[in-house]
Structure formats: structure tokens, C-alpha cells
């Protein structure tokens, strides 16, 4: 049937939106329907490039019809097709635009979800962009007072930071996660986030910073009375005593086994440097950081 030919549907749609001497107003309503039909037909035929273009036009049409929700949905479809085509820049642009359109509807959750979808796609091809999209996704939920809905995002972003060996960024995020958990009274998540931050510092063999983090977090009563605090205490005591076997034993404890997998993997590698008492005391005296090239 001619009416189901996506190329003809696209041409008809373009004609309805193009102004001329005989057409003073674009007919976005009928054009958008044609673009949507063409997009579905192209996608069914696995013509990803043309399907992507059709969804872009359908999204624009829904915007012109003051329907940002439908426009966002179409933009997500275009982003999914850009993924199939390996066009990482368009993946980022389309998911970001989709997020903006959901935000126009006053819907922070789907707006955040759109950014998260883009971030997950981009972790391999454009990891720095993925970091920014995860971060922006968290901010959308935090600003709307929906911190608990951001926990999976904190988890994914922490894992990405560790993968990229951005350990300082990981600790900052984990402490931010702890603060967010505190706001929604998620005590267990809060305590796990703080213990995780301490473990990352220990993985860096930055024992003084791990102790500072421990002391700061212990000002919070919920953490002070937690199993995670007791685990951190045992771990730091073992470091101060230079007891390698105890460090390895604590790293296998229940409190650590219930953390996220990426933190468990770091804990299993502890200690990552010399923890002899003499070296520990010398590092306190001279105040010089240990060489991170010594990490194993």
C-alpha cells in the first residue's frame, strides 16, 4: 500500500510543515501522525538511520502540538536508534533533550531516568559524558527531594568512577550518598556508604584520610552505633598495628560482604601497601603521601 511506504509518509509530512504561498500555516497535527507512522515502518524494516530521523521529526511535531511528554518519548526512541548506529554524540544529545522535555512536564523521575539511560549506553564509548549524565540525573532527583530514588544512580556512578580509577571522586560521591540517605532516614544505606568511602581511601593506601573520614562520619550517631562502624574500627586498628592478616580477615567480614560488589572487590585487595608500624609512624612524621605507584 502506498500509504504505508515510509518514504512517501515522510514526504507528505514534510509537505504539510513547509510554508508556501498556498500554505501559510504548518499542519503539525497531521504531519506528526505521518512521521510517527514512518518511524514505526522504518524501524520494523531495520532502517535505523531513517527511523531515527522520523522519530526526531515526530518529536518536533509533538513539541509544536504542546505535548512535551510524547515529544520526550519519541526523542528517547531516536536515542535508542542512535545507540544502534554507534553515534555516541547523538545518544547524549537525544537523551538530554528527552530529559528536558520530561522536566517541562514537571516529572523529575522520568527526566532523571532518561539521563541515566544515556549514561549507561555511554559508559564504554564516552565515559566522561556518562559521568556527567549520571551526575545530572542525581541532581534532578535531589533537587526534587527524591534522594532515595537516586540510590541506584549513586551506585552506578561509583562503579564507573572506580572503573576509571577516579577514586577521589568515588569517595566524594559515597559521602554525598551518605548525606542523601540521611535525609530520607535510610540508615543502613548511609552507614554502608560511609564504610565504602573508608575502604576506598584504604585502597589508595591513604590511611590518614581514611581515619579522618572515619572520625567525621563517627560524629553521626547512626553510624557510630552501626555494624559498619565496628567494621571500620577493626580495619583501622589492624592498619595501625600493621596486622596484615587481620586486615585480610576483616575485609572478608559480613559488613563488607554486604556492600556493593565494586567495593567488595577493592576490599579483597587490601592492604595495597606496606602497613608495618614503623612505616606507619614515619608516614605520620614526615607528612608526605605514599607513592601511589606502589599500589598492587
Features:
296 residues, mainly alpha, Serine Threonine Protein Phosphatase 5, Tetratricopeptide repeat, 2 domains, 17 helices, 74% helix, elongated, disordered C terminus
Concise summary:
This protein has 296 residues and is mostly helical.
Q: What structural class do helix, strand and pairing data support?
A: mainly alpha
Q: Rounded to an integer, what's the Rg over CA atoms?
A: 26 Å
SSE pattern: HHHHHHHHHHHHHHHHH
Q: How many separate structural domains?
A: 2
Bulk shape: elongated
Number of strands: 0
Biggest beta sheet attributes? none
For this structure, the quaternary state is: single chain
Per DSSP, the total helix count is 17
Provide the low-confidence segments as ranges: 282-290, 292-296
Q: In CATH, what is the class of the largest domain? A: Mainly Alpha
- What would the average pLDDT be, to the nearest integer? 92
SSE layout:
Blueprint (H helix, E strand, L loop, with lengths): L5 H12 L10 H17 L3 H17 L3 H17 L3 H17 L3 H18 L1 H17 L7 H13 L3 H17 L3 H17 L3 H11 L3 H4 L2 H14 L3 H7 L3 H4 L3 H7 L9 H10 L10
Helix pairs in contact: 1-2, 2-3, 3-4, 4-5, 5-6, 6-7, 7-8, 8-9, 9-10, 10-11, 10-13, 11-13, 13-14
GO biological process, one term: vesicle-mediated transport
Keywords: ER-Golgi transport, Membrane, Protein transport, Transport
Pfam family, one: SNAP
